[in-house]
From TrEMBL:
PROSITE patterns with a match to the protein in the record: EAL
Lineage: Bacteria, Bacillati, Actinomycetota, Actinomycetes, Pseudonocardiales
Pfam family name, one: EAL
Gene3D superfamilies, per database record: EAL domain
This protein's name: EAL domain-containing protein
UniProt source species: Kibdelosporangium lantanae
Domain EAL: 1-203
Coiled coil stretches, renumbered: none
InterPro entries in the cross-refs: Cyclic-di-GMP_PDE-like, EAL_dom, EAL_sf
CDD domains: EAL
Length: 203
């Protein structure tokens, strides 16, 4: 269904550090504002030679709020020849809901230019549904810690997760579940209405 650009760091002491953990470390050290554009450009350059699949790139809160984000994305797409519709940019929900609205403004402009917007870490609080109602989102990505929970019959959290996809679908937005590791987990989320899944189970 698509491909995702993921940062990995082969640390001499801690071994392989992957994905969101690398993003968080780069964000904390300030490296993300140089590393992020490099990742986006490198991924798009590779995508030119692949079949016509979407490319997903996750951003940190600082990237999502960066005043140069829209211009940087436009330059990368122009230089690499990748169409805006193939690029799915993931922005953290807490950044989209933060006072000031820089990330929200960036998302709206990017969406107007054809880039597909995804709200990351979705579902942790009820207010996340505001993003679905107010923003032009292509998809939401369920918060990883919610995916890691074992469903318990009768649990309020389990009941809420079963309803979540239906609520998101009301706005025509898709639901992505990351971190699926087993077949029962995949079956549960499929039954709960998720549209797309990724994780070790599919590798």
């Amino acid at each position: 269904m698509g491909t995702e650009a993921v940062l990995k760091w082969d640390h001499p002491e801690h071994g392989l550090v992957c994905g969101d953990q690398v993003l968080e470390l780069a964000d904390e050290t300030g490296l993300i504002l140089s590393l992020g554009p490099w990742l986006l450009r490198t991924a798009c350059e590779h995508l030119r030679w692949e079949r016509d699949l979407p490319l997903s790139v996750n951003l940190t809160a600082n990237q999502a709020s960066d005043a140069d984000l829209v211009g940087e994305v436009a330059r990368v797409l122009q230089d690499t020849g990748v169409s805006a519709g193939r690029l799915w940019l993931g922005m953290p929900v807490d950044a989209l809901l933060a006072p000031g609205g820089e990330a929200m403004d960036n998302l709206k402009v990017l969406a107007e230019n054809g880039v597909q917007a995804v709200a990351r870490n979705f579902g942790a609080v009820a207010g996340d549904l505001v993003c679905v109602e107010d923003l032009p989102l292509r998809a939401v990505r369920i918060a990883r810690w919610l995916v890691d929970r074992d469903p318990v019959p009768g649990s309020p959290v389990t009941h809420a997760l079963l309803e979540l996809s239906s609520l998101v679908h009301l706005s025509g937005t898709e639901v992505i579940v990351d971190g699926i590791t087993t077949e029962p987990q995949a079956d549960w989320w499929r039954a709960a209405g998720a549209d797309l899944g990724q994780g070790a189970f599919f590798v």
